[in-house]
Amino acid sequence: MHKVISCSIQAITPLMNSVYQIFLSPEIGLVSHDATPLYYPGQYLELLIGDKKYAYSIANYYEYGRLIELHIRVSSKSVSAVKVLNYLESEGMVDANLGLGDCYIKYLPCHPVVFIVGGTGFSQAKSMIEYLFKYNFTHAIYLYWQVYKRADLYLHGLAEAWQLDNPHFCYRPMVSSQSDLGDGSIVTSCKAIIQDVPDISNVSVFASGSPDMVYAYYDALIDNGANSANFYSDVFAYAPRASA
User: Fold this and answer.
1) 227 and 132 in a common domain
2) DSSP string, 126-147
3) Predicted confidence band at 119 (pLDDT cuts at 50, 70, 90)?
């Protein structure tokens, strides 16, 4: 389903703590109203700038004529992110390779869904959660947002609003000042998940974050009865574990 589309840059808005919200508009002449979606909720795109490709999760589900939303964290430590932001701020158009990744929702799941995200990994979950809301998903939805400090919860208010408006939605921000997400903070978060979810063996889990974070949650939840076949993350494709 990969497709390269030229997009106009519609808006760049700074959110909290060096995160920018970007809106892109696909060239409508290249998109048919009745065509297969350009992407499914949870998939990512690559911005094609010069001879480089920069991958970012898409923060909203696809609808014909709708803008594409990205969340990009920019800091002096990330040369590539600074380069991307400078390009988007100075140019009117950018090419994007859409429909990438295997961690997405194509059909409504038949059981509860757990989202575990770190930092701007929230953007991937956002597209899937809003898709589930739109189509009146009736099972429980759980969101666990792992960050180093509270300021990293750059759309905390949005997640709180989801919880107020949807009685079957549970939001838990997991704030840790510890530098190693593979330590006790993961254990604490997994305990919260096990306590919240009545049957961890009967859920779909979508995880988005660093490889260390994703694998730590994977190991902990599988040890507590989660089904490995229903645990999804793009990390498994771009940072696979070495074979034993």
Assistant:
1) yes
2) HHHHHHHHHTT--S-EEEEEEE
3) very high
